[in-house]
């Protein structure tokens, strides 16, 4: 469970609190980050999918990253997304992240533009070559509509192009196979982070070096306990904590499915929970998403109560 | 075949010629645009998918649009893409397009971020409200991974949110049904533009108000003849011209499939053909795509010769 | 528009009328077939998707085919589906069809079982080798979840494995390209049949040799007029008839979308229309589909009235 | 880990050995079954995907099931697939399975025919009502192209329609959530079986009641040791055995990807491994699949050697 890189353990993807005018709410973001660090997270992932990065402009992104880096204040490392459809803009964002103090950057496969494996590989190699900090590959086919093959991930790992992978592919079978290959091929420094909130115990037990669960914005202490239980070899305690978090994850069903979809339900419910918990001042979220309304917030509150967070 | 909007007839999506340093090649772009206007196109679509817009940064986009507007010089209207994953950035691009002289803007459904019909509708309404020029909806599920329903398109049309649709959905069945509904519901000003290079005659005969074929970069005169033949009621001539253009479209098979995919093969072959024809100085293309190599360019040349363009 | 095979022109896929006990209603089927022949169809496709073939057992299939062949009585040729997940059972059905008097058989790519292009090609070659009548390839990715490439279709055509293709792929772009290749490669005997109800005029004008519209069960005379108009070069009349049929096709929206999907809405509405028109005795349909209820039948009736069929 | 139904623990889906004439090889099947029972499996799943059931005709299916039931001889229960596109034929197969001695039947969602949740639910309810033995729902979207929602599975469980689920969905996130709901809702008799070869330890530790790994045809003793380790609380031993089996699973990469796909590579490599191991007489497989050739068999042999099976 130890790796040579500083990026292992619990590394939540930080949501980006917004005011009603949809600009970054600095004070709320500071509280959110401080609460996670106090809870014992091992790192922070800024400007990821949960952070609404593709919905923000560069000024808002820079501001959010600056606040996160400043609030972390060296206590935990910060990874920052450089998530753009193509290479040139991803490079610009990677350089901005490096300049603003991120200790690593994260890129996805290109999106919108139709690509194949060769274009994807060229993208990662180009972004990595443009910065001095390590690059992580973010495998998220539900957003970019292509899947990183294990062959590609391993080749980029061996070539020193990427320092790790964040797996949000939904393909736990493939990720499990990757874990075995990473070990078999002696890539002991390569970080293998699962992004799936409900499978963290399983993947840590299977050898993953860490997790990046969006739900840890809401309950960082719970995920910290889960990681600690696995590290202590207490499988039963890990499973119990994981199952409590699976119950908490039902907040994503709070929004009316007749008028909401996708990230309105996901990041929208995380923000609503944080608002209900008093951590952030508003559950505002970038267009075209919408904030959960009062009835929906009430359902989020019920779930929070049911798992002991309220 | 006439509409009240100025956006009908042949409106090619302009590719963005680049130098070897991957910045906009102004002189090549001027030649490209002038050649299309001389060939008789009815409008120009700047900063679309074929124009690599999602791969360019704002400075390059602004430059490309300025050159196109200046070269068009009011002879034909210019539509410009405002294609970004979310609403705020699409609004920024729409306003930039308006400021730089575009007579209309074009937006897709949001992408990367997971959305449903309500989020998509909110996106179009927000972009339309932010500018004074008309908005077109660009239906391109192969890039954004959601399909605009005919119900949504018709509702936005009736509400004056969108002035037309560019259909690159591949769903010609749905587009044909849309054409019938547009006529049945009295939306005579609503522009219905097909983006499918090989179905232009069919869709014009079925009542579409125009076409936006990427291949018209390569052979604008051919598409102009095709439009003229349909307007003249000469179905046989239209079909013959269309079939010649279908043969020309085989340039997209020139790139080695073992090392290229998607837009490397599409826009990459258009640029290569324009380079072989002497219209633009280089077939350079934005990363992560790659330019076609000499062997591949040779295959493009053969196709150009076979249809009489060389 | 003429081909050397007898399979061209209007070849509706015959629905299979059922009694309330879900066995074949012979009398209704006889009336249905007689009505189509009287309306001027050029052939009949038995045991296709619209005919619920995958939902019927062999005894019911044999009965349906016997009734169709007997009622056709040599006036028009009968093609019969041999549609099974794998090769051995498709061969059995192809032989049964041949034995029962079908003049050609139709097979899809394998389904349920996961296959690639080599497995698909082996399937068609094996079925063709097992019978003496011609084989048609049925391209219907929405059911089998793989698409026949034009390269494969053309190779099988040149090798004499298949005598034609029924295109229900939704990929009209690809079908248009196929039509051009079929002509360019001198395959003048190869039948190219479109299965898309709303694109028949376009595809006939583009050179398709015929159509297989499920909606022609409901209005065979309309489709016969459409074919005749194209044959006569009267493009305006063809388009007007096609647009009337597009309005008729809205019967597929009659079933409540909250409690129905897919083929319940498709073949279910065709059967309901035929029942409303008095052609068949019941709109019963195989499980797991359900028959449209009275309210839904009322909406079908309204559409029938709106296009002049009632 | 105990359930009230007899269907828990290790329940491999039995491949169907064939002779060169593609009929069931009875002697090989008897050896295969005996070897698995000797290795300690808890049940057998006949006529599943790995058993090529959709590629076999009814006579071959009946024969295979008879041999399996007879060879099992009551030592372990036998579940049998009733996997057909629609309801009537699934009912026929379910009744045949019951008649031939299966102690439960397994059905998938309908396939080929386009359906939604209501049609799927009707299918399971109809099949369950037709037999006296328990019904299992087989969730395999890669074959049937629809996913069973957890809501549907839980509703059918509460209503006594299904006795368990076999999850081959690839959606381990959803399956983990299902496990939590099954426990939370007091469905202690409901069987939850994972079909994913590489995630058996994780899912057993998460509370699944058993596994149905196709790879257990090749190494039933390995999977039996894995189950035993989990039952004994020896997480490290379970993981080590699982990782050995993940290495073994690489036999599915033995077939040349340029000329094989899907089930040729999957069940084809299982059969080849069994042939190399001397368990079955031939690696013949139903058309349109193909048997692995000598070079490919050599690669299978290498993998078998690397994990100690040879």
TrEMBL record, chains A, B, C, D:
CDD domains in the record: DHDPS-like (cd00408)
Stored Gene3D superfamilies: Aldolase class I (3.20.20.70)
GO-annotated molecular function: 4-hydroxy-tetrahydrodipicolinate synthase activity
Keywords, comma-separated and alphabetical: Lyase, Schiff base
GO biological process: small molecule metabolic process
Keyword Lyase tagged: yes
InterPro entries found in the cross-reference section: Aldolase_TIM, DapA-like, Schiff_base-form_aldolases_AS
Record: residues binding pyruvate: 212
Active site: 138, 166
Magnesium among keywords: no
UniProt family annotation: Belongs to the DapA family.
Protein name (Swiss-Prot/TrEMBL): Dihydrodipicolinate synthetase
Organism: Intrasporangium calvum (strain ATCC 23552 / DSM 43043 / JCM 3097 / NBRC 12989 / NCIMB 10167 / NRRL B-3866 / 7 KIP)
């Amino acid at each position: 469970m130890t790796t040579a890189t500083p990026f292992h353990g619990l590394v939540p993807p930080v949501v980006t609190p917004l005011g009603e005018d949809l600009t970054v709410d600095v004070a709320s973001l500071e509280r959110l980050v401080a609460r996670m660090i106090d809870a014992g997270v091992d790192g922070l992932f800024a400007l990821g999918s949960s952070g609404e990065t593709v919905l923000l402009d560069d000024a808002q992104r820079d501001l959010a990253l600056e606040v996160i880096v400043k609030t972390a204040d060296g206590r935990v490392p910060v990874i920052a997304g450089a998530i753009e459809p193509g290479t040139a803009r991803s490079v610009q964002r990677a350089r901005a992240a490096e300049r603003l103090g991120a200790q690593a950057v994260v890129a996805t496969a290109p999106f919108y533009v139709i690509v194949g494996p060769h274009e994807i590989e060229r993208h990662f190699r180009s972004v990595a070559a443009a910065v001095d900090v390590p690059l992580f590959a973010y495998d998220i086919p539900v957003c970019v509509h292509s899947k990183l093959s294990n062959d590609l991930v391993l080749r980029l790992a061996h070539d020193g192009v990427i320092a790790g992978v964040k797996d949000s592919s939904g393909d736990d079978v493939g990720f499990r196979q990757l874990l075995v290959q990473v070990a078999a091929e002696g890539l002991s420094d390569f970080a293998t982070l699962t992004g799936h909130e409900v499978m963290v115990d399983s993947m840590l037990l299977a050898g993953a070096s860490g997790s990046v669960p969006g739900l840890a914005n809401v309950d960082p202490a719970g995920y910290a306990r889960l990681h600690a239980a696995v590290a202590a070899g207490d499988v039963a305690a890990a499973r119990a904590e994981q199952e409590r978090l699976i119950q908490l994850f039902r907040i994503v069903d709070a929004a009316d499915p007749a008028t909401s979809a996708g990230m309105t339900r996901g990041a929208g419910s995380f923000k609503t929970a944080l608002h209900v918990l008093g951590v952030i001042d508003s559950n505002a979220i970038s267009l075209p998403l919408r904030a959960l309304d009062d009835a929906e917030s009430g359902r989020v509150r019920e779930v929070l109560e049911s798992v002991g967070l309220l």
